[in-house]
Amino acid sequence: MIKTLLRKEIIENKWILIIGLLFFTVSAAIVVFSYNLMDALSLPEIIDALDDPPQFLVSFLQESAAWMQDHTLYVWSQWHSNNVLQIGFILAIILGAVMMAREFNRGTISFLLSKPISREMIYITKVLAGCLIILLSILLPTIFLIVLSLIIGLDINVFRIILD
Asked: What span, in angstroms and rounded, lies between the C-alpha atoms of 92 and 129?
């Protein structure tokens, strides 16, 4: 019975999965292609050219210059600490709100509860489906990010990207 409920939830939320995949895939491509753009900026020269810059700006530019020494570090800093957390958090909020609201708006919650399924099983299935959708929305674009980096000739440590 849990397989049927899980399939129902994934089918009902396929558009959220597609939108999540789209946002994460575009973000992955931007991260990969922005490395060459950031590298061309020559951040140390920018720091030297500024007259009496604020300390926070100098710190930020120095940290950014340190990321540019290693493509894997740059990708990790942009992908995990920025895109995955921010987009993933927004996706989780939308997914959680939509999954329960849909049952109440359509009136299908009473139908579900009339079946020999406990409330807990319904909630557990929704949580599992949400976790699976978020996992797929992050994992597939991460693989795309790695493959795209390798295709354009950038050196990347696959294990550091996936396991960190």
From this structure: 11
